[in-house]
Design brief:
This protein is mainly α. Helix content is 49%, strand content 10%. The strands form three sheets. It has a three-stranded mixed β-sheet. It has a three-stranded antiparallel β-sheet with strand order 6-8-7. It has a two-stranded antiparallel ribbon with strand order 1-2. β7 and β8 form a beta hairpin. The longest helix is centred in the middle third of the chain and has 28 residues. It is globular, with a radius of gyration of 22 Å.
């Protein structure tokens, strides 16, 4: 969520994120300025705004609401130290005392920001992240973990046991026997980042690829019914699933609930209609939607903005 807030406050990457900013700006709660004060467009963001619970939005907002006083005080002091050009608002002094009402307001605002700015795009974001995870899950089988780490970002340099990356600030993270969580991020654009406090769970956030026009809503139920009437339900499901990235026959079968043999048969028909393209990769076949397929999914509209 915080990285999306950074992206909202910045005015770069306008082709990818400009339409989203213009779309969600009118509906964001006025209290979003509270979050923005602690999570500026550039510089250190208080780590307590991104609690690691692994249990969804409700658990994360509850964890934010229950931030220990010592943690909020320490991280606000860090904010002042590493962001010399940014002044915290006066109410931050109250937050440093562990003010329950103020933490509660921050938690409520975070929830409202998610509902207005991110929830309408959850499926698109989740599918893009899932696509990245699936592609990287194939890499260790062919090139080991070096293949994963070397391709996380254009700046990545893996020389066992050190992974070097271009970071916005000079920072070293020593795992000391801990695992490293690789977290693909839809709103992270230029370079990877990590939590500032080395005592927290080691997490490396890195950007993923997606195309312009992602913020446009997906076809609604009537459009999906029309597509199913035209192609048949199984082929319509496969075409929509293939639009989320590049997948193997088995992966598309799993996403759509078809058997692999049935999915393969329908994919042949979609390929012959030039709606899907397929290519061999080692011992699998990878499928992706064509421009014609995207146009059909979009109801005949161009897939990219004019």
């Amino acid at each position: 969520m915080n990285i999306s807030l950074h992206r909202f406050q910045r005015r770069d990457a306008s082709v990818l994120f400009g339409p989203w900013r213009r779309q969600v700006a009118p509906s964001l709660p006025a209290a979003t300025r509270l979050l923005a004060a602690l999570s500026p467009a550039r510089g250190y963001t208080c780590d307590f705004l991104t609690p690691r619970t692994g249990q969804g939005l409700a658990a994360q907002t509850e964890a934010l609401r229950s931030t220990p006083r010592q943690r909020s005080r320490t991280e606000l002091e860090t904010f002042d130290r590493v962001n010399p050009g940014i002044r915290l608002p006066a109410w931050a002094a109250e937050l440093a005392t562990g003010s329950a009402p103020l933490l509660g307001r921050l938690a409520d605002t975070a929830h409202a920001y998610f509902d207005a700015g991110l929830r309408p795009h959850c499926h698109t974001v989740h599918d893009a992240v899932r696509h990245d995870v699936m592609l990287r899950a194939r890499q260790p089988a062919h090139g080991g973990w070096a293949a994963v780490l070397d391709t996380l970002h254009a700046s990545a340099r893996w020389e066992y046991p050190v992974l070097s990356l271009d970071f916005p600030v000079e920072q070293e993270l020593h795992l000391a026997g801990r695992g490293l969580l690789l977290q693909p991020s839809f709103f992270c654009r230029y370079g990877p980042t990590a939590l500032f406090d080395p005592s927290l769970e080691p997490v490396l956030v890195y950007p993923i690829e997606h195309r312009p026009g992602w913020e446009r809503p997906r076809p609604g139920a009537p459009a999906r019914r029309s597509l199913a009437a035209l192609l048949g339900r199984a082929r319509a499901l496969l075409l929509e699933a293939a639009a989320d990235g590049t997948f193997t026959t088995t992966e598309l079968a799993r996403h759509t609930g078809l058997t692999p043999s049935n999915a393969s048969r329908h994919l042949v028909a979609l390929r012959e209609a030039a709606l899907v393209s397929s290519r061999r990769h080692r011992n699998t076949t990878l499928h992706t939607v064509t421009a014609l397929g995207v146009s059909l999914l979009d109801g005949g509209r161009p897939s990219l903005p004019a």
